[in-house]
Amino acid sequence: MTDGVTIENEHLKVTIKEKGAELKSVINKETGLEYMWNGDPAFWGKTSPILFPIVGTLKKDTYHYKNKSYSLTRHGFAREATFQITTQRKDCVIFSLSSTPASLQKYPFNFELKVEYRLMRNNLEVSYVVTNGATDDLYFSIGGHPAFKVPLLEGTTYEDYYLEFDKEENSGRWPISPEGLIEERAVPFLKNSSILKLTRGLFNNDALVFKDVKSKKISIKSAMHLHGLDFYFSDFPYLGIWAAKNADFVCIEPWCGIADSVLHDQQLVSKEGIVKIFKDESWTRIWKVRPF
Fold first, then answer.
1. pLDDT tens by residue, 111-141
2. Rounded to whole angstroms, how far apart are CA atoms 85 and 92?
């Protein structure tokens, strides 16, 4: 059994942990199929961390803001924080995380982050809402990192599955340096194709990072059966795809923000992909998954 908060309707049963407001389980009630990675720490102990207030790695784990330097580790602190539940119904739960004296030491912004999980028929909708209640502008990045189970059915292998983009893509991947930074130039990758076959060696050089995919939906499918999922990510300009070595999952990662470039000057306000919102402003992005 997976611990955490459970929401459900006639189609899906979903479990989320309060630590990190992390999605742990998505079960199709009709088939009994589990769609989430099990979080085996021998490979990767997480299932769907929330990346906030940065996505990826900072150059030397440091950024500068208003002539002061601050340090944040990879992907920020939200994934290790305990969120508060502000709303809970049978088919919906809202988690909240706000700035604290400790967070202000490494991220000098007063913020509220709300994460809502809502079931809409056979879809799980995940919303990120960031609110700036302070007088200064608020700068942040945010991203999802859900790890979906592959292979999905017993008797199938990892290589029996593929990702299908909803548009034909011509997009290079942006290599990641040994320090976790985005290299200077993209390398050719997707060429007039909507299909990306999953193989054990696909992520040997870390995540596949894209800045310009046209698609707003990616599906996980197999030629061996009719089960899989559709993943919708409108309004996220960056996309990561990743799996740990020999692990039975693939992460589809919608990002508003990206790791620092190897050439970045470490100034937060000029960071690629950084989001800026003004006093009393709220900002929302939504991704959605439909298992089938």
1. 999 999 999 999 999 999 999 988 899 999 9
2. 11
Q: Which residues contact 26 (CB under 8 A, 6 or more apart)?
A: 12, 13, 14, 34, 35, 36, 124, 289, 291
Please spell the DSSP secondary structure of 21-56, one letter per residue: TEEEEEEETTT--B-B----TTT---SS--B-S-SS
| Average pLDDT for 222-238 | 97
Q: Which residue has the tokens 């309060």?
A: 18
Tell which CATH architecture fits domain 5-291.
Answer: Distorted Sandwich (2.70)
End-to-end CA separation in angstroms for the chain: 22
Domain residue ranges of the chain, discontinuous segments joined by +: 5-291
DSSP result, 224-265: T-S--EEEE-TT--EEEEE--TT-SEEEEEEEES-PPBTT--
CB-CB contact of 34 with 42 (8 Å): no
